[in-house]
Amino acid sequence: MYPNEFRYTREHEWVSIDGDTATVGITDHAQDQLGDVVFVELPQLGVRTQSMQSFGTVESVKAVSDVYSPLTGQVTEVNETLVDAPEKLNESPHGDGWLIKLQIEDRTEIETLMTAEAYQAYIDAEKES
User: Fold this and answer.
1) CB-CB contact of 108 with 72 (8 Å)
2) 8 A C-beta contact, residue 70 and residue 24
């Protein structure tokens, strides 16, 4: 279910790496737990994110949740589509529902993130507890 080429956080974000650019979003598990997404707050272009610090929020009918950056970097693009169509996060969390793109500062941070297999085991364990 989770793309093998992505890496994942314990806070349920994913990251896809292409050269020095990282695309960040929330996982299918996260959007499922949130329910219907009604609003997304994203950072401005040029903002510097820190690994595992909040860069925005996702508001659903159930809750408002912070979204954390898997990596340190500078925001080079935001998914403006989500402003008018936040439901894209529910419809395509690993595709059209991406949140931001970053210029990666420290590639070694990638190694601290979970593989798809490790992430699946993590959410399975979360469900059992």
Assistant:
1) no
2) yes
Q: What's the token pair of residue 73? A: 């970097």
The reply to whether 119 falls in a domain is: yes
Residue 116 belongs to some domain of the structure: yes
Q: How many Å apart are CA 12 and CA 88, to the nearest integer?
A: 17
Q: How many CA atoms lie within 13 A of 98 on its CB side?
A: 16
Number of domains in the chain: 1
84 touches 71 (CB < 8 A): no
Domain extent for 112: 6-124
Q: What is the pLDDT of residues 100-120, one digit of tens each?
A: 999 999 999 999 999 999 999
Q: How many CB atoms lie within 10 A of CB 10?
A: 13
